[in-house]
Specification:
Blueprint: H1 2-20, E1 23-24, H2 35-39, E2 56-57, H3 276-291
């Protein structure tokens, strides 16, 4: 009987010490919970395996066992992510990455602080930060889902830039908006006029064409700015083309004998075998005889 009393006394002292330290204790065989044990949340079998559990201590009674609690004596703290001695509840930068927690998309990850596209993957690990379909290493604006290209490197994305290639021609007037060397394709053959040798595709090379961008004109005989197709007097000799035997020769407009030589150059305009200068002399003699 004395031995049983002694055993009960020792057990009671042990339970009191454990309760005082915040430990969860197993019941002794035959014991029932009392008020003190209830307040300490004692349990006879916490994992329901019909056996006594190991003693679990939680000195600050914050719900985190001491062996898992970075601050076992502080009920307001249990974690120190960056091991700086300041608990996460008080620490303004839990992961010590330089970004305050209230601005950090990943406050417990020192390698991440931003998630541009809100896909749950930090920008450091995400290969497409803005989720626009263009990989970051090919994206001129990796954090802007509306932009991925800046043709002229002016800092303005092509979607917003009104002159993508910065050639001075607005994109909506530029046949090649992303080519600073081209803006026009007169004949719509897909070759810009700078590279095209026949801009108007009229068969006359540009360097021989008086109107390289007009497929209806290539010649301006009299240099008056009006192409021969539209000009009513190509050689500007005063004789309309439809009356001019030599519409492109300002020195000729008549070919009396149709021998292809204009009367100005032809020595026998009527091709009668008598040179014009002899006929002129004979005509002058006849005129004198008539006067007599």
């Amino acid at each position: 009987m004395k031995n049983l009393h002694f055993t009960f006394l020792i057990s009671s002292m042990l339970i009191f010490a454990m309760i005082s330290s915040g430990c969860t204790v197993p019941y002794l065989a035959g014991d029932q919970p009392n008020d003190a044990a209830d307040s300490a949340e004692v349990s006879s079998d916490t994992d329901e395996d019909d056996g006594d559990d190991s003693v679990l201590c939680d000195i600050d009674n914050d719900g985190i066992p001491d062996d898992l609690d970075a601050f076992p004596n502080d009920p307001d703290e249990d974690t120190d992510t960056d091991d700086d001695g300041i608990g996460d509840e008080a620490d303004l930068d839990d992961d010590n990455d330089g970004t305050p927690d209230d601005e950090d998309a990943f406050p417990n990850d020192p390698d991440e602080d931003t998630d541009t596209d809100d896909d749950g993957i930090g920008d450091e690990a995400d290969t497409d930060d803005d989720n626009d379909g263009t990989p970051d290493d090919e994206d001129a604006f990796p954090e802007d889902p509306d932009e991925d290209t800046d043709t002229d490197d002016d800092g303005i994305g092509n979607e917003a830039d009104t002159d993508d290639d910065n050639d001075g021609t607005p994109d909506d007037e530029d046949a090649f908006p992303e080519d600073p060397d081209e803006d026009t394709d007169t004949d719509d053959d897909g070759i810009g006029n700078e590279a095209d040798l026949d801009d108007d595709n009229d068969g006359t090379p540009d360097d021989q064409d008086a109107f390289p961008e007009d497929p209806d004109e290539d010649t301006d005989t009299d240099g008056d700015g009006i192409g021969n197709e539209a000009d009513l007097d190509d050689d500007n000799d005063g004789t309309p083309d439809d009356e001019d035997a030599f519409p492109n020769d300002p020195d000729e407009d008549t070919d009396t004998d149709d021998d292809g030589i204009g009367d100005e150059a032809d020595t026998d305009d009527d091709n009668d075998g008598t040179p014009d200068d002899q006929e002129d002399d004979e005509n002058d003699s006849d005129d004198e005889n008539d006067d007599d």
